[in-house]
Design a protein that fits this description.
Radius of gyration: 22 Å
Distance between the termini: 41 Å
Strand content: 5-15%
Number of strands: 11
Mean pLDDT: 86
Largest sheet: 9 strands, mixed
Structural class: alpha/beta
Number of helices: 20
């Protein structure tokens, strides 16, 4: 195995860091919010559409029964509520709200450790977009952001289309999860940005790089512990309890929850632990607890790249415009490994080697607009032109979230599932360039950091499939390379009142870029007991 690396392995770790590239590419490519038309033909002669009827053949162990949406919102009382936990404190918005709709703001106050009577309190910023009707539905939509520690306040505009559609009938609520920026306490460690720029310019061997970053995160963990923060309480179970407490504190009898990526795991834990307050749930790009994230990582990267290359090769127009993308990709990786290129910024130089090149291309694959841009990026890089990459790297340095939160749940829930040797073994059949990237550039650092992060491994029951009969809608993009469609199918198999839809041409976070996905979600919200009309899938395909 090669022993090379670059500075961005940590910031863009998987679920958390790649989100910023998707955000950037949607902005750069001026995505309108409608379905992005494919520039090449499907790789098969028939549409790759999967629609599952409610999975009635499965007998869940859960005794939860779907509840009709007949609840009435209870007004929020401000009298004698100062000591009540959980509670909602109306107040100024924690950050500017960049969706131009009527809204109100405040803070959710919850205990850090629900097992202690005198636990410290956590404050989470909340934005409530008010329903634009005098007679709104009694159950809002509460959004569960992905990433793990992501700053939803900074990224809410990504969901503006769906918010506008939802508030015609009901409230839409966003909040930052515990430990994320703007929360109190926020799990922040100063100096990581400077370290990334320093390592970008120095470009040390990967062992040295991993050692420096692991030392940084070890000190970060010590600093957080010195502040009295218990990292064991920054888990998916705690996030799920917060999501339910938000509903309770706002006075709703029930809510509809909508999660993307890591947010879907929170939603599944909510079904497992507190389903009585859930009218329905939407899981977009599912990350179920039974998924094997690290042992699947190399396979998922390889599959995502192969799908991009095969899609273009099947379309003469794409081949004419871009050439043989697979060959260009491999040759560029080989060239950059032998002789890295430098991109100069005011903050310093960034040395781009083969791993950093793969990392950006893989990140682009995680949104439908990004997949369109990846073809141009590959073609440009094959000619030695890295100018299209220029806006990407600084954006990655400024990931709007907390990697300390990411490590708290990954080191608790994912890393203990498999040894690092098993990660290496599962990647054995993957092409060498991708294997080295996935194992050395990505997984090795997460495993190293988890040796110093010192959180308790989750119980075996926490990583078992979640069984529920609460109405559920599971959405997946055919080209999603980080939470592949098979994970969505796996989650849906255990949701007896659920439907699964797969969207050809879409990638990670289908509802951000597919009007069809949003149309199906809106129909589901109107009546979660009925399978929504999905004819738009074939029409857009």
């Amino acid at each position: 195995m090669k022993l090379r690396g670059s500075m961005e392995i940590d910031l863009r770790s998987g679920i958390a860091g790649k989100l910023m590239v998707a955000v950037l590419m949607i902005a750069l490519l001026s995505c309108s919010g409608n379905d992005a038309p494919p520039t090449s033909s499907p790789t098969t002669s028939t549409p790759q559409v999967t629609v599952s009827e409610p999975l009635v053949t499965f007998t869940p162990q859960s005794t939860t029964t779907p509840v009709a949406a007949t609840s009435v919102q209870t007004p929020i009382s401000t009298e004698n509520a100062a000591k009540k936990i959980p509670r909602f404190e109306p107040g100024d918005c924690a950050a500017s709200v960049n969706i131009g709709l009527p809204h109100r703001c405040g803070w959710l106050v919850v205990p850090e450790d629900r097992t202690k009577q005198e636990a410290r309190h956590i404050r989470l910023p909340v934005v409530i977009f008010n329903a634009r009707t005098p007679d709104p539905q009694p159950d809002p939509v509460i959004y569960l952001t992905g990433g793990g520690g992501a700053d939803q306040m900074a990224m809410m505009s990504l969901y503006s289309d769906f918010v506008e559609e939802v508030v015609s009938e009901r409230d839409f609520i966003m909040y930052n999860q515990r430990g994320a920026p703007l929360t109190d306490p926020a799990l922040e460690c100063t100096g990581i940005g400077e370290l990334f720029w320093e390592l970008a310019e120095q470009h040390p061997p990967i062992e040295e790089r991993n050692m420096q970053l692991t030392e940084f995160w070890s000190q970060c963990r010590s600093d957080l512990a010195a502040r009295g923060i218990d990292l064991n309480m920054y888990s998916t179970s705690a996030n799920a309890a917060d999501a339910d407490d938000l509903r309770i504190a706002l006075g709703y009898d029930q809510a509809n929850y909508y999660g993307t990526s890591y947010g879907t795991r929170i939603g599944l834990f909510l079904l497992r632990d507190r389903s009585e307050g859930v009218r329905s749930i939407i899981l977009d790009s599912a990350y179920p607890p039974e998924a094997d994230y690290y042992t699947s990582y190399a396979l998922n990267v390889a599959a995502g790249l192969s799908a991009l290359f095969d899609e273009c090769n099947s379309d003469p127009a794409c081949v004419s415009r871009y050439g043989d993308l697979g060959t260009q990709f491999s040759e560029t990786v080989e060239r950059l490994e032998a002789e890295p290129q430098i991109i100069t910024y005011p903050e310093g130089d960034v040395v781009v080697d083969g791993d950093m090149y793969i990392d950006v291309i893989y990140a682009l694959l995680q949104s439908a607009p990004g997949r369109e841009g990846a073809r141009s990026f590959i073609k440009s890089a094959s000619k030695g032109d890295l100018e299209p990459f220029r806006p990407v790297y600084p954006a990655l340095f400024d990931y709007p979230g907390s990697m300390a939160v990411y490590y708290s749940f990954q080191c608790r829930e994912e890393v203990p599932k498999h040894s690092f040797d098993e990660v290496v073994a599962e990647a054995a059949g993957v092409p060498e360039q991708v294997r080295d990237y996935a194992v050395n550039f990505f997984a090795a650092l997460d495993y190293a950091v988890c040796t110093v992060w010192e959180v308790q491994p989750s119980d075996a029951s926490e990583i078992e499939p979640v069984q529920s009969d609460v109405p559920a809608l599971v959405l997946a993009g055919t080209f999603d390379p980080i939470t592949p469609a098979r994970w969505g199918r796996s989650a849906a198999e255990f949701l007896s009142s659920g439907w699964f839809f797969e969207f050809p041409g879409q990638s990670h976070g289908t509802m951000r870029t597919s009007a069809c996905a949003r149309e199906i979600a809106l129909a589901f919200l109107k009546d979660p007991s009925r399978m929504p009309d999905s004819t738009c899938i074939e029409e857009t395909n």
